[in-house]
Amino acid sequence: MIDLHSHILPGADDGAADLEESLEMARGAVAHGVHTVVATPHTLNGAYEHTADRVRKQTEKLQRAVEEASIELKVIPGSEVHLRPGGAARVISGESGTLNLGGRYVLVEFPFQTLYAGTDAELYQLKKENITPIIAHPERNLILQSNLKILYEYVRMGCLTQLTAMSITGELGEGAMDCAHQMLQLRLAHVIASDAHSAVGRTIRLSDAVAAAAQVTGDREGALAMVTTTPEILLKGEPYSVPEPLEAPQKKSFFKFW
Ligand SMILES: [Fe+2]
């Protein structure tokens, strides 16, 4: 399996605190059947700024340490770009890292409580430059949880989405779980990743989520593709044909009982 979203770089952000913890995360990943992890430190979120070049150097350094520790894991550079206004321009200029620094796909995150005005324009700007945004854990955003129609439009625009494994299993709360399951049913989800931040708690573990996703959709092969063939295509920068999503329901009404 491939984990497309992790905070495994030592001391880079709110993920692994030091090299020891990074190596512990790497060992855990391998023990759970993961052979490749993308290091996606937060960037442009107001707390962290990680240029593509810096992530590349940090990833190379971690890869050497992983090999010295005889852990059979490949670590690939990326980033999790907080898509505030102006964020797209930083990706297009190459300053903020795309997946595998390939310039074709980029992991973007929104705030948890809200959506910035102009988010669709930022996404469109990336698409126009032939860079496909992969929206990190949309199921954890409160606005999208109550109105998946917005996400449906982003997917129709050509964006992809990444579900966080622990959202699918219910470990991040009912709101995130319900939304994740709905996304799976509506074919609005494309990749499952760990978004691991540590060696205990939010670790690199995907199989439980794959099993849970398969149960929701009844499609074991499709669920497995979300941690194998699909992320592989994205890391290679190859074109990915987006499955046609089902029309998402309109915004939930607060007056639904009336
Ligand atoms: Fe993350």
Topology, element by element:
Elements (H helix, E strand, L loop, with lengths): L1 E5 L12 H13 L4 E4 L2 E2 L8 H17 L5 E4 L2 E3 L4 H6 L12 E5 L9 H10 L3 E5 L5 H5 L1 H10 L2 E5 H4 L5 H12 L5 E3 L13 H11 L2 H6 L3 H8 L22
Summarize the structure.
The protein is of the alpha/beta class. Helices cover 40% and strands 14% of the residues.
Characterization of this structure:
- The protein is an alpha/beta fold.
- It has a single domain (2-236), classed as Metal-dependent hydrolases (TIM Barrel).
- The protein has 11 helices and 9 strands.
- It has a 6-stranded parallel β-sheet, sandwiched between helices. A 3-stranded parallel β-sheet has the order 1-2-4, with helices on one face.
- Strand 6 (105-109), helix 4 (119-128) and strand 7 (132-136) form a beta-alpha-beta unit.
- The longest helix is centred in the N-terminal third of the chain and has 17 residues, at 52-68.
- Residues 5, 7, 80, 136, 195 line the site of fe (ii) ion.
